[in-house]
Amino acid sequence: MKITWLGHASFRIESAGKILLIDPWLSGNPMLPEDRHDAAVAGATHILLTHAHFDHVADVLPLAKALGVPVVGQYDLMGYWSEAEGLDTVGFNKGGTVDLDGIKVSMVNAVHSSTFATPEGLRTGGTECGFMIETEGKVIYVSGDTDVMADMEWMGDYYKPDIGILCAGGHFTMDMAKAAYAAKRYFDFRTVIPCHYRTFPILEQSAQALADGLPGVDVIEPQVLDPIEL
């Protein structure tokens, strides 16, 4: 399995013969060089979306059309895009699980918001979520944008994720200290990869507080386009 950070909250997960793009943000992403955009998405088989904010959704429509791959996400937004844009979508909701040709993806709760801009102003794009991705005998928890929440207790107990991809930049989501608290209290991760940080000055720039708060856990500060093999 390879997990590659594309900057901010965007990831490429290669596993079981599939390539999942998580919240792929290319255009305007200051961490992803423009001349590497094609390489970042090459071979993608599915796009997974946690919510509709621009730094997660800006490239989803053009990418899905150009690559000819389905978008997987919250039912309301997927239904809208299917009708309005003619996209191939897999819409489901919290508590549900879909099988993406051998990779099982369960939608779980997150605490954030989910809006997108239209000529008529902001519109709600369904609700925010996270994912539990089961593949190759491991479970990856993709938190999406969220704060610490009590739901993490049952999520950790039920899904028992080995790997946590956690938003940890602060200001818009939990910060490094809160992410460490959540990981230590509610989960038993072997590996934690922070995201939603370093992109802008307002966000945290280092994961040291996360690593300090999780002794015994392999906290990996990802580097853009540098695959992490697990």
Order of helices and strands: EEEHEHHEHEEEEEEEHEHEHEE
Per DSSP, what share of the residues sits in E-state strands of 2 or more residues?
A: 25-35%
Radius of gyration over C-alpha positions, nearest whole angstrom: 16 Å
The gross shape turns out to be: globular
User: Residue-averaged pLDDT, rounded?
Assistant: 96
Low-confidence stretches: none
What's the helical proportion of residues?
Answer: 10-25%
- The CATH homology group name: Ribonuclease Z/Hydroxyacylglutathione hydrolase-like
- Text of the CATH class: Alpha Beta
Q: What number of structural domains do the residues give?
A: 1
**Biggest sheet, in brief?**
7 strands, mixed
The side-by-side strand order for the widest beta sheet comes to 6-5-4-3-2-1-16
Structural class: alpha/beta
- Please name the CATH architecture: 4-Layer Sandwich
The CATH topology turns out to be Metallo-beta-lactamase, Chain A
> Count of DSSP helices?
7
Structure summary, number of beta strands: 16
Gap from first CA to last CA:
6 Å
